[in-house]
Amino acid sequence: MLFLFSDTGGGHRTAAEAIDSALRRLPGGAVVRTEMVDAFAACGVFPLREAIRSYGVALKVQPSPYPALYHLSNGRTRARIVTELGKPFIRGNFRQLLERVDPSLVVSVHPLLNELARDTIDATGSRAPLVTVITDLVTIHHAWTTNIPANQYVVASAEAARVCTSRGIPAERVHNLGLPIRDGFSPPADKRAAKELAGLDPGRRVLLIMSGGEGGGKLSGILRRIAGSLRALKLQVVAICGRNDALRERLEAMAPRFGAGARILGFVDNVADYMRAADALLSKAGPGTIVEAAACGLPIIVCDYISGQEAGNLGYVEARGAGVVALEARDVSVTLRRMFGADPSVMAEYRRSALESARPHAAEDIARFLLTMLPETAKNVTPVG
């Protein structure tokens, strides 16, 4: 299996690695050779490679130009034009990659790689099927689906499945198997022990704050306005700023205003430990963050989103009762006072709803489905979805 992704945000690589890890646990999966490729980094040349690298910068600056770029390119024809413009700057090296690996199955986990993969598979005479794993929960950019290049589509929700079929993809080629997440995201058997494992005070309630892998958005402004509520509720604050060093430095300067023991972190590999230890999560509406929190039974307060690709995630959270959308600082404060108020049943209900919405075995289900696409295992593995 050849997995194709790009490090634009953390979600594409994370999804591919989660599927690969799950594959190793399945009967017959351990013997399957997999290759993970950041296609733009490995095969792209100037200026395409540099344009893709600018994704993180575009999210960090405020106001961010990224939402405008997303909307300008999001249309059936416009997405096709963007894809065609990029192909000359990756096509040759990508063909060499495909010929070298000679995969039995190609799995695309990035919207801008689907047509390129389809063209190259056809041009080389490969018989490898193409499976696209869409990593958005609800709002799907047209680049994922334009010209319907994949043989099969894996989606993360019923809402995403409806978008795909509305764009002409036959329903039998769309498989709602959930969004793949890494190992370790599960509800703790003992919350106090989980807090101790994360190095936190087991006797205090913890608010985890996250801003995505690139650390973009309006988080610092919201935190400045709700600092009084954080102190009043005596919450222990843990803020994970991702790769945004400037945000981390701003929050470190503000940390004394958040109350005793506030912890400000950059990019970390043990997000699951902090989610299992936390009592609530304040975050932007990243799809991976939403489903990882749900798997931990962690209520989420969505305070920001990337216009376009994350807009549909607001309704996704609210429809499942897994959290609250509070896009203004005053609404965040009200929500915190309600969640951490005197009535423990409020938080308990959010935890229950979060767990009910979770699909913790999505990576395994997707890996099992991919095994059915391999010629040598198709007759021995029962399909899912």
Task: Tell me about this structure.
With 385 residues, the chain is α/β, with parallel strands linked by helices. The protein has two domains: 2-181 and 361-373, Glycogen Phosphorylase B (Rossmann fold, 3-Layer(aba) Sandwich), CATH 3.40.50.2000; 191-357, Rossmann fold (3-Layer(aba) Sandwich). 45% of the residues lie in helices and 12% in strands. The chain contains 18 helices and twelve strands. It has a six-stranded parallel beta sheet, with helices on both faces. Strands 9-8-7-10-11-12 form a six-stranded parallel beta sheet, with helices on both faces. α14 packs across α17. The model is unreliable at 377-383 (pLDDT under 50).
Question: How is the largest sheet built, in terms of strand order?
Answer: 2-1-3-4-5-6
**Number of contiguous helices:** 18
What does the main sheet amount to?
6 strands, parallel
Distance between the termini: 20 Å
**How many discrete domains?**
2
Look at the structure and name the CATH superfamily of the largest domain: Glycogen Phosphorylase B
Strand tally, please? 12
State the share of residues found in helices, binned by percent: 40-55%
User: What radius of gyration results from the CA coordinates?
Assistant: 21 Å
**Structural class category:** alpha/beta
- How big a fraction of the residues is strand? 5-15%
CATH topology of the largest domain: Rossmann fold
Mean pLDDT: 93
Assign the CATH class of the largest domain: Alpha Beta
Q: What is the N-to-C succession of helices and strands?
A: EHEHHHHHHEHEEHEHEHEHEHEHEHEHHH
Shape: globular
